[in-house]
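Lecture 7 notes: from sequence to structure.

We start with a single chain of 585 residues. Read the sequence below before looking at the structure.
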Amino acid sequence: MGGLKEELLKTIWHAFTALDLDRSGKVSKSQLKVLSHNLCTVLNVPHDPVALEEHFRDDDEGPVSNQGYMPYLNKFILEKVQGNFDKVEFNRMCWTLCFKKNLTKSPLFISDEDAFKVWVIFNFLSEDKYPLVIVPEEIEYLLKKLTEAMGAGSHQEQFEHNKNSLGANQGLSAWELIELIGSGQFSKGMDRQTISMAVNEVFNELILDVLKQGYMLKKGHRRKNWTERWFVLKPNIISYYASEDLKDKKGDIILDENCFVESLPDKDGKKCLFLIKCLDKSFEISASDKKKKQEWIQAIQTTVSLLRVGSPPPHKDARQKRKELRQKLQAEQEELERQMKELQIANENKQEELETVRKQLEEAAARAAVEEKKRLQTQMELQDHFSVELAREKMVRQQMEEQVAQKSSELKQYLQRVCELEEMYKKLQEALEDEKQARQDEETVRKLQARLLEEESAKRAELEKWHLQQQQTILMTEAEKQELETQRIIKERALQVAMQQLEQLELERMQALEQYEGVKKKLELAANKTKSWKDKVAHHEGLIRLIEPGSKNPHLITNWGPAAFTEAELEQREKSWKGKKATSE
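Now the structure, written as tokens:
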């Protein structure tokens, strides 16, 4: 019922707007009375003139808007429609009210009757929005149906060529559609009669629900004779007439879900037979040829199948599907536009964020460049400082090595002389004890100096290693700057500790030199004593060597012979040296 109401409203809308002469959206009450009376007449609805007066009693004979008339129209007319009215008569009544005002004065290639049918078709195919328009997809569908009915399928190329002129954005109104078809733009080469037949065929299919029609022979039920009839197939009925002008109706074949159709063999000189079997009666039909027979059987079977499943006629079902598809595409388009708008806003926000980040990066890069410049300057200063310190340490080391080499040469000469004296005067105990003591001290000093030199070399190697690491830090990336700065501070502290250790070593070296000088003096004293004793021996006893028993204690042996110190004295000196080293560390 809802679909019927929408179709009726479309037609009534044309009549109402035709009565609105100044296009203000309002119509006088007297005109609405006439319109309401005519609507009730053609729709077979009881007319209640008092209801209209009651509905608009506060607006005496004044204009009434479309919104004000709609409640009355719905309540007192449309809700009472039962469907038992003549659709053509209803449409013709509304057409009579509006066509003279809206139809173009230019000559058309179609008759007024054909224009009326196109107008009715427009109401069927138009969108459910006001003002009514027919979208390009439905225009294309209608023109294709017309060209197929005219047998002119080649006009598809022409339609594609002129598609942009068919109201591609908003669509066409009913009068623009009539002018388009009446101009003959899409029916060139066709005469008026062919166009009229095509319009009538499409009108019958879309408006009158004619699924198929044509002449066939029907066998009578009483006299059993065969008579030619004009058959018209609709969704729930097959009507047959004396001729195609539909003036003399001979009967109906009521179709329901229990009906079926089957092919019959040729008999009684009749060919292409088929049987339509209903609950109370059967009908034998003879088609003109096998093709027509098969088409009618297929059409009737399809109609019965639709009745069984409760589906609407194919053209109405197709129209509904096209509308649903357009609504779906429109919803998808709106959703796509919404998403595009959101993406555009997000993109703009992202661009602003990127611009802010770019500015921040530029500022950070400028700050990093300044910091890098300062860091490089500091590194260069440290490098110069370390280079100077390394050169100075190399010079000190070289001087110490020269002194050690000189002392070592002097020590070698002295030891050589001592060896000679030991070989000659083994029995001189006092001189030998002094000599042993001097040698013990000399060995301790030499070991101490050797250890000091080794530690100094290790410290210098460590300093050189730190210096190389400091140079490598210059090549590091910005991500390691902070870590390098921390390492540099640690290394500076380590360098300070190393410098303190080096100063301690220098102090220990000076103490060792003082010990060395003491030992040297002792050796000189021992040498003087030995020389004095040698002179005495040479003077009194000649070169005779005295043989005396040696000490029972085991003697320590050095690289230059027997040591001048005992094992206990060596251990005591080692403990003293280790204690000094632990204190310096």
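Confidence is low (pLDDT under 50) at residues 542-548. Keep this in mind for problem set 3.
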